[in-house]
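re: that chain from earlier
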Amino acid sequence: MAREFKYIVIGGGMMGAAAARHLSQREEAVALIGPGEPSDYRTHHGVFASHYDEARITRRFDGDLIWATFAARAIDRYREIEEGSGIRFFSEAGCLFAGPEPRSDADYLYRAARIAETTSLTTVEKLTARDLTSRFPQFEFPGHVVGYHEPVQAGHINPRALVRAQIALAKRGGATHVEATVNSVREEGGRVRVEAGGEIFHAERVLLAAGAFSNQNDLLPRTLEMRAAPRTVVFFELHEARLATFATMPSTIVFTDREEDHVYILPPVRYPDGKTYLKLGGDIETGDLTRPDDFRAWFASAGNPQERRRLTETALQIMPGLEGCLTSSAACVATFTPTGRPYAGFTDSSRIAVLTGGNFVAAKSSDELGRLGAVLLLEGGLGEDDFGSLMTPLFR
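^ sequence. v structure.
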């Protein structure tokens, strides 16, 4: 016997959980279907997600108006989600951008400063090299570097905790949460048939929000034009003496003279193993992940050893106070669309929609993206206030 719902969201990650919450606020008969985090990555043979972590940078300062808008809308709801769920996930540590003086529209910081001005983001302060040295002694930047500091409504979020909060609120709103992997989605007899965990589910409309795994298991009628790229992150283990130095630093994004040395840095965060780590990642990736075996092997690894060495060296140049810290690394996956924007739209079927394409910047905006996914199912499309035409999915 099939289980009947009006709407089903496939994918229990940051976008999918948010979409289920927003749907549950407006409709009954909502289901969220997706597996939980595996207990052992090395032996796991199913799907993964990149939100299995304790920290992601959040900020409104952005070189793309769409992403800046989505971030601002999502950040405005952080405290509401925390208070409603009782789960804290937002740390208002501020966010710092540092890089060479921007001079043209080709520079990210130039575009971001202009967007901040047009959107009245007045809290961002431009800093000279001398300002950076005096305000943020954790860093040693070259003398030609300037900064943009966003002190409020910026910092970092705990993605695991945010997903827990979204699911808790969705269930409180009446949504059904099924922890299972979906292995079939197809339109059948004027509705959508979903197979997961040995069960059959029916819905009027389905939203696929499966991240990097959206093109796996033939879940979509056609393959999305989207890359799944491997990324490596490095962790510096901090003990009490180092914490005194780095505890007050903001989330930081550094644009260096060489593109391969661009990095993002998370302030010290306590992880489930009881240790405190400062995390650092970059923009370098090698190849794409396409087959299920590729994903499994990558997530079970500690990332790319060469990238780990490069990131460690870059970190020590920027933050010499990390010298001597124990380091470790992990694998992450980023999804990239040709447009640089997320996908939020329908497939060839008016009953099956897709929400994916984080482009390595979507965690902070996931609640707004989930809201857009909910609007898709409820209203059958997105208006231009939500940049709907700019997020039309592209298929191969």
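The first strand starts at residue 3 and ends at 4.
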